[in-house]
Amino acid sequence: MTNKHVDRFNLAAQDYKTDRCPVRAQCAQKALDLLEPRIEDVILDVGCGPGTQIVNLSQLIKSGYGIDPAEQMIRRAKQSAVNCPNITFYVGSAEILPQQIHHVGINKIFSNYALHHLSDTAKRHSIRNLASFLPDNGMIVLGDLMFSDNPDKHKALFDIVGYGPDCDTPSQLSLLEDMFIEAGLSPRTHILNPLVAVIVGKKT
Description:
The protein is of the alpha/beta class and 204 residues long. The chain contains 7 helices and 8 strands, in the order ααβαβαββαβαβαββ.
């Protein structure tokens, strides 16, 4: 994520709402359903923002970690998790994972509406980096803006899905699936609409 994006989310942290866009909330719920959280899981939320999703999982899992490059988002996330001793937050990104989470036994990773801020090159590196972090049979669930059709044919959806052509850089769905395969992940895709989907990648 560029410094411009980090600055934008630092400024927005105080009033930021993860469910402001209805499709984003729908995508998050689909991603969490596909994550299938269990009490033995140690889960990482990449691009966690104010921490809403991983905090909501706190009673269902062994422990959870959230990372975000925006320091103010992490500050807010820590406040939201004050009554969740099994949830921890750090400043970090999919490209540069904090050292503190390298040996905590993470077996599942999810990210919702975060990686579309990255270039294709950065996405490829991030997915490979996250996959290398997982044990065999570990899982990545990515819910995000990703195009299964030409976005110019679906401009009526832009506001509904929260896509801003001037600041967002979603990838083609097929390209992301290739990135998962290159990283040693077997992908299954769930398309929500032509601009949004969820990919589940299992490490084999």
